[in-house]
Amino acid sequence: MSEVKSTVHVSVMPDEVLKYINPQPGQVVVDGTLGGAGHAKMIASRLVPGGCLIGLDRDSVPLQRAEETLKGLPVVLAQSNFCDLPEILEQIDGVDCVDAILLDLGLSSDQLADRSRGFSFNSDGPLDLRFDVDHGEPAWKLLGRLSEQTLADLIYQYGEERFSRRIARKIIETRRSAPIKTASQLAELVRSCVPVERGRKNAIDPATRTFQALRIAVNEELKSLEIALKRFPEVLKPGGILAIISFHSLEDRRVKEAFRNDDRYEVVTPRALTASPEEIEVNPRSRSAKLRVARRV
Question: What is the CATH number of domain 14-110+222-296?
């Protein structure tokens, strides 16, 4: 298990989250992606007296850290996928539905900083990429067994990477002589296949899309989101709020379509909200964040 260090994660769009979640004393609110617990602390402090925040995360490390961060606040913490929220609520006495749910999807800065997990491109640790290291298949094993066609499709569909076939071909060629086991190995391989975006301000690392694709596949992130969007109305009170922050189009598209097409949801934000220039200046990660909010009909 990774060493538990102080959080370096900065919560995205805190003011907007507070505005739309609007936590009140006595309410029950779920933070389904606890991470650095920034959103959770902000919300939980407003639920007193009589309320409770339920904090979930698939990764055990932020849960351990949150026990200290949220000490003295009314919280219940559980290691779980947010799509299993109905089952989690069955285990909590007196709670069968909630007033609001928040999801801040994707990778946290703490996970990126943990060089033992492979999320950082320059890490020489195992290319794992799992949120829950006790379940599922690490990314390096996935790279070792998938066919060239399947790898190309995965990188294209989940990473929207137009050089996916070139990358998949190079992975197959490389693994014939030695397995690709570290993040730095994979990052260098991908960079050799993808032209650098010259002259573009804030150009992303060429390895970004491939790492995103593998992380999504390993953790079944889109499947979890789709299941959650269908299940959350079962446990949201009438008038309850669902707020979701996404960081790429694959997630945002699913949230947008669910909010518009499921008649149990009423769209609160017709357009996705984005971070202010001031926030982006101090927290560049917020640049790609989109917040959508719906109300349970």
Answer: 3.40.50.150
